Amino acid sequence: MQKHLLHHKPNPKVSKKLLLASDIIGWIGAFMLVLAYLLISFGVLGSETVWYQILNILGAGGLLFLGIVRHAIPSAFTNIVWVVIGIVAIINILR
60 near 76, Cβ under 8 Å? Predict the structure, then answer.
């Protein structure tokens, strides 16, 4: 039977502690991304502030960790791109 790229079964070798940790880190990451969106939407932070980018990098990093542990490849890919965008944005801001 052929495995489909977008549908992976959970790895049975992953410990329950790691799964729990990834869920907690993923929820924290999701909260940080929503917080960043809320703060920019209401004008508390601007998109060209380091704090906004840090919230995005940390939030996407948390969801990236969750995506890797849970084998959610599309989510992991999206969050890699999100982290890279945030890092490049910080570099540009600090120039």
Answer: no
Cβ pair 40, 56 in contact under 8 A:
no
pLDDT value of position 78: 98
Every domain of the chain and the residues it spans: 16-94
pLDDT, one tens digit per residue, over 14-58 is 899 999 999 999 999 999 999 999 999 999 999 999 999 999 999
Give CA–CA dist 4/70, Å, rounded.
15
Greater model confidence, 82 or 13: 82
Taking every pair of Cα atoms in the chain, the longest distance, rounded to a whole number of angstroms, is 52
Gap between the terminal Cα atoms of the chain: 52
Q: At what angle do helices 73-94 and 50-69 cross, to 10 degrees?
A: 160
